[in-house]
Amino acid sequence: MDLETRRREAGFTLVEILVALVVLGILVAGLGQGMRLGLTAWTRQAALVDETADLDAVDRTIRGLLVNATTGASHGRNDFEGETNSVSFDGLLPLAVSAGGRRAQITLLLDEQHRLMLQWQSVLIDPSTNQPATGEAVIAENLEQVSFAYWQSGAGSPGWREKWNSTTTPALIRLHFVFAKGDRRRWPDIVVAPLVEESGV
Hints:
The chain is of the alpha+beta class. Helix content is 31%, strand content 31%. β4 and β5 (131-140) form a beta hairpin. It is elongated. 18% of the residues are buried.
């Protein structure tokens, strides 16, 4: 066995070790970059899911309020008043805020802090204060504009109206959100048909 054969059997040469280290470094760098991209994508996806979940909750809350909207006619009132930036009606509060009874005079409006607010006054009198219970809750934040519209049905000029003041509820209520500048959220219009019959309230 000559000297060259012994050297080859003894181990790797310096050049072979350097090549192996370079290849290993490239692989580690590629894996690190892939992990960074994966973590960034995961973070963005998680943020998007959180935003969508928030809007889903807003959508369910608003639909639950408007589907039970009435004028209060069966109680001798006419509480439904629709404006472009607000709507007031006789309805049922969500269970989470209905400590003094669910039946209340309800208002949805955009306040000065760009929040969609739920304000209410219970139709029941609180025995401890001899006054109806009142309250408010934030439904959505960071809004530039909120626009309500009301669908008038029937043979005489059906269509969307910017205001509604009638002894009956509109056939449909539409709510359009415009989020503040820089907010990436987008949401389709919420359209709800009030379903409660006045005689059944």
